[in-house]
Amino acid sequence: MAKKPRTVFVCQECGFESAKWLGQCICGAWNSMVEEKVIPINENDNRSRVSAGSEKRAKATKLIEVKSGNFSRLDTGIGELNRVLGGGLVQGSLTLISGEPGIGKSTIIIQAASHIAQKYGKVLYVSGEESEEQIKMRADRVCGNTSENLFLLAETNMENIVAVAEELNPEFIIIDSIQTMYSEIMDSAPGSVSQVRACGNELMKLGKVKNIPVFIVAHVTKSGELAGPKIIEHLVDCVLNFTGERNQELRILRSFKNRFGTTNEIGAFEMREEGLMEIENLSKSFLEGLEDGVEGAVAAAVYEGTRPLLLEIQALTAPTNIGFARRTALGIDLSRLNMILAVLERKANVSLINQDVYVNVVGGLKPEGTSTDLAVALAIYSSYKGKPSSGKTLALGEIGLTGDLRSVQNCERIIKEAGRMGFSQIILPQKNVTAIKDIPKNVTLIGVSNIREALARFS
Predict the structure, then answer these.
(1) Nearest by Cα to 331 from 399, 244, 241
(2) Which comment does the entry carry about domains (predicted)?
(3) pLDDT of residue 46
(4) What would the pLDDT profile of 253-295 be if each residue is shown by its tens digit?
(5) d(Cα 425, Cα 422) in Å, to the nearest integer?
(6) Is the Cβ–Cβ distance between 405 and 450 less than 8 Å?
């Protein structure tokens, strides 16, 4: 006898299920519980069970007997996208890309789809948000002549999508977006936790069995995080995030998870009328406004993935008009800024208790790591003391709570990039200076051991 459907309440933030409605979920979200029906599997349905003798028993394999080989990758035709993916799309992989509305997700996807269709074969573009005519208009604008191997499907039913994919047998599949898809086996609305989970499982099965790379577009919440349950991020092989200001042209593509490459790599693009264009010299674009003799502006460097990146740190100090000084940081972690200010006051006798401090990373980039600590401290000191900084000076190093400077990784490659960009003086930890073997002829290294010595050499 078939069981009756039962009702559960599912949190739309974390996926927690409860038999009763809760005002606040265990994850802390309020009013996030939505009623959903769970249709149980019929025990008499032979499709839901596999008898012990009908299928071959599973057998474990010794690790040393497993043959290893290189992953087969597809060239997307976009060098920066290939860089973030680790060299291209891996056959049978699932890639999740997210970003705010209007950031350029659909644009970069249609550009990659057009190239793959011309080079490899059939590509299936499934859209649940736009009509075929809208996609055609974008493709004509950013791709020009599209290939006859690029197929469009305006559908939200996952069973129909799987049927079309099995019949077409494409080389690449795009789902735009996962929040608009639904499966008939679930009795909940599209975009709910149950539907996103079920559709994600169907796409994973389709991609892995047919060995087809799948690109999935996902929405983001108001806080910028991926909407839907975290299980989708666990299912996919790669999670990409597209960031940037919609009123600016710069777009940064970063990998948060990658089973076939590094997660420290970033890709840089410029949004134009004809689509997203790659930025080959990203450091140059970040340093365009850096001038000589300006107060509160210091060049810094970070190492992102496989390349050094030079950027500009700006700081401004102003007397506070209220009882508590304001601390504002854009691109730099606020807790990190407060620590640097405490070290400046305690170890270098730079009192900023009655000063509002504003720090900004030019270009909207949020650098990872701590190699920008010294540049932040020098920029604040330059603005507070009114001492102009040199546009040919670069600073890098991590500041410890004791005021000492810690060494940074990949320093030698950063120095070579700085010399190529025209910097003549680099302030860095003394430990890095002693370890560097090859110093460019036009670059002078200034090794310092603590923050007090760095401020003395900077001034």
Answers:
(1) 244
(2) The middle region has homology to RecA with ATPase motifs including the RadA KNRFG motif, while the C-terminus is homologous to Lon protease.
(3) 45
(4) 988 899 988 887 888 898 888 888 998 888 888 888 788 888 9
(5) 9
(6) yes
Beta-bridged to residue 257, according to DSSP, are 239
pLDDT at residue 51, rounded to an integer: 39
d(CA 91, CA 211): 6
The CATH number that domain 284-458 falls under is: 3.30.230.10
Radius of gyration of the chain (CA): 27
As separate numbers, helices (DSSP H) first and strands (DSSP E) second, the chain gives 12, 25
Q: Where are the domains of the chain?
A: 6-42, 72-280, 284-458
Phi/psi class of residue 104: alpha, beta or left (left: φ > 0; alpha: ψ in -120 to 50)? left
Question: Contact at 8 Å (CB) between 312 and 286?
Answer: yes
User: Is 70 exceeded by the pLDDT of residue 100?
Assistant: yes
Whose tokens are 């600016």? That residue is 248
Q: How far apart are alpha carbons 382 and 237 in whole angstroms?
A: 45
Classify domain 72-280 at the CATH superfamily level.
P-loop containing nucleotide triphosphate hydrolases (3.40.50.300)
CB under 8 Å to 52, separation ≥6 — which residues? none
Annotated binding site for ATP: 99-106
- Binding site listing: 99-106
Strands (E), 22-116: 33-38, 73-74, 89-90, 94-99
Largest CA distance in the chain: 85
Structural tokens at position 79:
């060098």
Question: Amino acid identity, residue 72?
Answer: S
CA distances from 118 to 20, 171, 295 (A): 53, 11, 52
- The Cα–Cα gap between 358 and 374 comes to 16
Neighbours of 105 (CB within 10 A): 23
Are β-strands 6-11 and 123-127 bridged in parallel, bridged antiparallel, or unpaired? Answer: unpaired
